[in-house]
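queue> holo job accepted (LCS)
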Amino acid sequence: MNTKNAGFNSKLIHSGAMHDEKLSAVSPIYQTSTFSFKNADHGAACFAGEDDGYIYTRIANPNVRELENAVAELENGFDGIATSSGMAAVNIVYLGLLGAGDHMVSHNAVYGPSRGVMETLYPKFKVESTYVDATNAQEVRDAIQPNTKVLYIETPANPTIGITDLKEMVAIAKEHNLKLVVDNTFCSPYLQKPLDFGADIVLHSMTKFINGHADIVAGIVITKTEEDYKNIRNVMVNVGCNMDPHQAWLTRRGLKTLGIRIDRAQESAQKVAEYLEAHDKIEWVKYPGLKSHPQYELGKAQMNGPGSMISFEVKGGVKSGKVVMDNVHLALLAVSLGGVETLIQHPASMTHSKLSDEKQLSGGITKGLVRLAVGIEDVEDIIADLDQALAMI
Ligand code: LCS
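queue> job finished
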């Protein structure tokens, strides 16, 4: 089916679809490391790029290509490069866009390891970075240096749920000739399409919403141009952080229900956020669907919905937060997000623990911040679970 003019949910099911011609299998899997050539000339033509036959799974595989084509179409990009993890996606973008003497400006509340790896590994290759509050465009402008090449943001950010103005970031990137990279993990293309705003590159940890079932780790990079695609694919193939066919098959399966999963999770998240905001033991709640969110209007303007990630702090800070985390039964005390299960975690001691206290605080990651990833269970059960845990304080 040609999905070009199809609706989003139809694209989720049919984009990139690859039906096995021999057996007419609707959902085939090509669990193979290599592909045999018809003859020596055919092999040579495949290597020369004169024939688009498959060669070797590190370079390309039908299941992986199906997923790459589907997510690229959903993001309105040129093409996609799937990877073994979200961190591999982050790193092939860094490696593809930055070289010795270059500088990157980023948000001070990105996923901890996305900052951690840049600050610990990349200085070895003479790549520098500066972290600012990207929800304040002036701070971004002030951080730009003559050697800045990349502006890297996450919106909403992990774990503060701060929203960065995509239009402003695009304007800054254009003005200073920077590549704008957006980690779209928290939204997925269902809720936000950064390339439509003018970003150059979008990446995802597909471990989260795109797969949605907490059973694989994976990533993807989507580019706007062929040039960026070729450059970053070359890094992926040579680093060897390709996606496995079975991982791709599971992810393509999970992707089919992205729309209905997010609809359900965000409807529940709105109710959970309202419940928490009204609770007398809660200090503050940050959720894009609450009018109290500092960028409520901006979120409404650039996202198709508020999503299902909530951050909050319990009165009494980290001590009381721990009581809640230790006493929930339905919500699992686990890192990750975007799956069908409700998960709760403590960023300061878990996902962002490798960042110093100072870096955490400058990014708004307070010691008492608790992150809740709302799943698709019955919302009454999610709220009842939080309610009995809060009663233990
Ligand atoms: N980008 C974002 C926004 C993330 O949340 C994560 C993982 C990554 C990139 C890296 O992806 P991975 O290699 O794990 O597939 N975030 C996690 C989190 O918040 N809890 O556990 C992992």
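queue> The domain at 8-30+61-255 is CATH 3.40.640.10 (Aspartate Aminotransferase; domain 2).
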